[in-house]
């Protein structure tokens, strides 16, 4: 755990110094909402359409973070330095996934209210607790798969292409779960709690892929 | 690519590896550092077979590579503190090393603002932070002026007491430091001998 916190602290410090990833993710999400606003030619949206727009926007904003997650390690020798240390290599997976999870939380703290203002018809108030639960489970999926895919992609020359090509199909079940889970919450006079079935699917996906990622991550670091 | 290279480095001694660019010097160091997996052959470091027993070796060796392995947006002190935590080293060691290489006053500057020589001093600190018994030094004095060379001497020189494998493009300097000399030519051992027995013509051929 100490190693995880050490790497996480370093990653957050690097982001604070560079301010490269988070602002790009936030700006992308807000611009996308504006594009949807005009593209759909509707002042407001709700229900499943709103959930789809929110999920897709968060996904593509997350891809920006995923693509940059290991760039400093690759370009500045962080991989080698880490591999030379007598620590559990899985600590890097956990720390990077936590960093990405935190980036996604910050993104959503800004993007979800912006979505409520720019696009969403019904008030967010009653849906918020349920939406937070669905987004949190979705964020775990994005963080785990994103970290795994980013670790693969950064070893290749076409890392900007590899991330989406591998990541999007792997994330499909989680994205469906997020959209279906959030749909009833964002409907006019909608439910205040997400459908249990989709929450369970999301949670199961998180557990399975977290374990899978933990099992294979060591091999990805081999030269 | 390395082929037919067979050697032993006794504890506490220095192996100098000579050869032109692409001869395999850095590859040899990366294999010994557990960063590259050999396709064939046997590599033992501290008696531990690599890569299978790599975990038993990491933390006992220090690699000073061409790349300083430092984050450019972090300061020297932040970089060294990060590595100290990874290696379980007390924070006081960071200050001790910053003093030793004359970097205390520039320790809080981001690495990207430092000259190559100052970055190399920090890279030396990172390499020896955890007191490794084996130093893998790839052009260790690159970018260092004479004063800095003198400062890092006790850390990575013969007086460090560590077993050393060093590469250099300066044969004379390398021979002066070495107990054993390996000449590499296109990944193969051209010669392996003591510095006194090195044929100057053979050294010259390496760089032709």
Number of helical elements of chain B = 7
Instruction: Please identify the structural class of chain A as seen in this structure.
Output: mainly alpha
**Mean pLDDT over the full residue set of chain B:** 89
**Rg of chain A, Cα atoms, Å:** 18 Å
Order of helices and strands of chain B: EHEEEHHHEHEHEEH
Domains of chain A (count): 1
Biggest sheet: strand arrangement of chain B: 4-5-6-1-7-8
Shape of chain B: globular
Number of strands of chain A: 0
Highest CATH level, the class of the domain at 14-70 and 132-206 in chain B = Alpha Beta
Shape, principal axes of CA atoms of chain A:
globular
Number of strands of chain B: 8
Q: List the quaternary state of the chains.
A: heterodimer
How far apart lie the N and C ends of chain B? 19 Å
- Portion in helices of chain A: over 70%
Report the mean per-residue pLDDT of chain A as an integer.
90
List the helices and strands and how they pair.
The complex is a heterodimer of chains A (223) and B (208).
Chain A (H helix, E strand, L loop, with lengths): L1 H17 L2 H19 L7 H22 L2 H5 L2 H7 L5 H29 L9 H26 L5 H24 L13 H25 L3
Chain B lengths: L13 E5 L6 H8 L10 E3 L2 E3 L10 E4 L11 H12 L3 H10 L15 H13 L5 E5 L7 H11 L6 E6 L2 H7 L2 E6 L2 E6 L6 H7 L2
Parallel strand pairs in B: 1-6, 1-7, 4-5, 5-6
Antiparallel strand pairs in B: 2-3, 7-8
Describe this structure in words.
The complex is a heterodimer of chains A (223) and B (208). Chain A has 9 helices and no strands. With 223 residues, chain A is mainly α. By secondary structure, chain B is α/β, with parallel strands linked by helices. Chain B has a domain at 14-70 and 132-206: P-loop containing nucleotide triphosphate hydrolases (Rossmann fold, 3-Layer(aba) Sandwich). Chain B has helices at 25-32, 76-87, 91-100, 116-128, 146-156, 171-177, 200-206, and strands spanning 14-18, 43-45, 48-50, 61-64, 134-138, 163-168, 180-185, 188-193. In chain B, helix 2 (76-87) crosses helix 3 and helix 2 packs parallel to helix 4 (116-128). The longest helix of chain B has 13 residues, at 116-128. Chains A and B meet through helix 1 and helix 5 of A and strand 4 and helix 2 of B.
């Amino acid at each position: 755990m100490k190693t995880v916190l050490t790497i996480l602290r370093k990653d957050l410090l690097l982001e604070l110094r560079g301010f490269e990833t988070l602002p790009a993710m936030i700006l992308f999400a807000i611009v996308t909402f504006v594009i949807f606003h005009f593209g759909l030619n509707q002042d407001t949206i709700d229900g499943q359409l709103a959930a789809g727009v929110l999920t897709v926007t968060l996904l593509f904003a997350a891809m920006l973070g995923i693509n940059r997650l290991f760039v400093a390690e690759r370009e500045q020798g962080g991989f080698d330095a880490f591999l030379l240390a007598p620590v559990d290599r899985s600590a890097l997976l956990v720390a990077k996934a936590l960093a990405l999870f935190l980036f996604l939380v910050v993104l959503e703290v800004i993007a979800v209210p912006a979505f409520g203002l720019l696009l969403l018809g019904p008030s967010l108030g009653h849906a918020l607790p349920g939406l937070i639960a669905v987004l949190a489970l979705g964020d775990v999926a994005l963080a785990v798969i994103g970290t795994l895919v980013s670790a693969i992609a950064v070893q290749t020359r076409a890392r900007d292409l590899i991330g989406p090509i591998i990541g999007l199909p792997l994330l499909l079940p989680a994205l469906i779960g997020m959209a279906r889970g959030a749909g009833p919450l964002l409907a006019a006079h909608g439910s205040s709690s997400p459908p249990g079935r989709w929450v369970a699917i999301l949670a199961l996906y998180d557990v399975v892929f977290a374990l899978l990622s933990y099992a294979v991550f060591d091999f990805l670091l081999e030269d | 690519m390395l082929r037919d290279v067979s050697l032993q480095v006794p504890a506490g001694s220095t192996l100098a590896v000579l050869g032109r660019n692409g001869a395999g010097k850095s590859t040899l160091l990366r294999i010994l550092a557990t960063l590259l997996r050999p396709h064939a052959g046997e590599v033992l470091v501290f008696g531990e077979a690599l890569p299978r027993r790599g975990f038993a070796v990491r933390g006992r060796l220090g690699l000073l590579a061409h790349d300083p392995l430092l984050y450019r947006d972090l300061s020297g002190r932040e970089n060294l503190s990060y590595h100290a935590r990874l290696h379980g080293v007390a924070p006081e060691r960071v200050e001790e090393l910053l003093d030793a290489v004359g970097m205390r006053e520039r320790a809080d500057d981001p690495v990207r603002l430092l000259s190559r020589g100052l970055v190399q001093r920090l890279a030396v600190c990172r390499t020896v932070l955890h007191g490794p018994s084996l130093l893998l030094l790839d052009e260790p004095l690159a970018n260092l002026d004479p004063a800095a060379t003198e400062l890092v001497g006790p850390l990575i020189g013969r007086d460090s007491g560590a077993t050393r494998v060093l590469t250099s493009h300066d044969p004379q300097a390398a021979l002066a430091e070495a107990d054993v000399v390996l000449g590499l030519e296109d990944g193969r051992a051209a010669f392996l001998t003591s510095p006194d027995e090195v044929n100057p013509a053979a050294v010259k051929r390496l760089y032709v």
